[in-house]
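Same chain as my last thread, 168 residues:
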Amino acid sequence: MPDKQLRRLKTLLQEAETNLAAARELLSSVLSDEGSIVAPADPVATPEGKVVEGIFDGQVMIGPDNRNYPVPSNYASKSKLVEGDVLKLTITPEGNFLYKQIDPAARRNAVGLLKMRDGVYYVDVDGRDYRVLLASVTFFKLKVGERVAVIVPADNADASWAAVEMAL
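reply #2:
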């Protein structure tokens, strides 16, 4: 299978997994523990839908209830989200997930080399590997071994994710 087809297949699978996670989240928000449908407590109080704020961890938003909320990888990639960014998620009555970055984490720019290990992309910045989203790799048409400008959290020494700024 040619590389382009394989990359496209991986992207489609990642999107499917994100959509499935979103569907599970929506289902759990409308069902009680017993499996019956739960009516909204006060639909007039939140006409735009359920609103949750949380912290982006590089792949998902972690809500105040420690639940993972799937962030579309194309949104995270194009918005150049980094670990520690505060996001607001609105789950509309129709079941759409709308994210908005409301408090960006402090950032710093870096340059590294794109690597792949076990099917996962990393950027090596001064001997330290940061994972990057597949959506970023495919969007910028990056190839392993290329120099890449990335954005990493400035105040998080334990960060394991970076956002791709551009290929160099």
